[in-house]
Design a protein that fits this description.
four-stranded mixed β-sheet, Aspartate Aminotransferase, domain 2, binds pyridoxal-5'-phosphate
Amino acid sequence: MSIDLPFHRPWLEEDEINEVVDTLKSGWLTTGPKTQHFENDFKEYVGARHAIGLNSCTAGLKLAVISAGFKDGDEVITTPMTFPATSNVLVLERLRPVFVDIEPETLNLDVKKIESKITTRTRGILPVHFAGHPCDMDVIQDIARRKGLAVIEDGAHAMDARYKGVPIGGLGNPTAFSFYANKNITTGEGGMLTLDDDARAELLRAMRLHGLSRDAWKRFGNSGFAHWVLQEPGFKYNMSDINASLGIHQLKKAPRFLKLRQEYAEIYDQAFRDEPAIEIFQTRDYALHARHLYLIALKLEQLTITRDEFLNLIQATGIGVAVHYIALHLQPFYQKEFGYKAEDFPIATRYSNRVVSLPLYPKMTHEDVARVIDTTLGLIKKYRK
Ligand SMILES: Cc1ncc(COP(=O)(O)O)c(C=O)c1O
């Protein structure tokens, strides 16, 4: 059977379409006024001093990492329960990702385990706000301050999340967001790096576009033709105005989208709470959960099927599902390169084999949500030991 209730569908309306058409007709397609408009709205939205529009969240992580003052072989503490981009960026900059096991309640990195992983080579912490649930940032910031470590936040899932009332992106650390097609708001492909440090933001604005800087030239007092100046070789990570055209309107709809995500997540929680073969996850008191992903974990000891068999069975009914994630310490590259083993991070290993992400997006209807629930509970009932 083909998938008729996909894992995700973006919600794009006439205003996004009209804005893209306006951009196409304007003759200015690359980084320009629409990107600037989106950046300004976004920095207001999260309460950051700067927002830099990029072509991905991965680019944002990379820019944050290259500007953190790390040296080859330095260690950065992060979570194994993430998308490879988080940690690949470190490896590609010749840094050593040091994983910390996760907490079972939220699947975020367990902040209580960070200090035991700090060595003389540790220089940074890279928390991921998993599924849209913020990490306990007070604890992380306190450790970072005491030990002199840089903090870079992976906010790929965390657009709209809040920590103790403060939006993720507004805590002062460089924070990278994703606007990939399935994120809480989308630009098709795209990302944003927010930060508060003025000088670092100026450097990274240049680094996102080959290292070219016009502002630098202005500083030298030339008021005529706007030459660019190359201070350092940079990357090609800039957001285009075509992508920003989507972002401008998606951002305005973010509160409406979040409300629907929260409502559907609550319906899922209610439906699965009393099913003994399903584990659901918690929201900490300090957190406003962005509800980017809705995960359940299967209690395999109560079932006659594996998680992967469950995935095939539910997809056979036409419902798209996903896995977030098979943790990075189980991936061949990280095992070969850093010698990580399954037993090093028992909680991440346990959930890697049990988690299922069910569809959760505003474009779903209440009927869609009910169908996912009925199908999930039906399969659990059928394959219970
Ligand atoms: C946790 C996490 N970090 C980083 C990324 C990379 O985002 P992008 O595809 O925008 O580069 C993703 C992508 O889904 C992600 O889930």
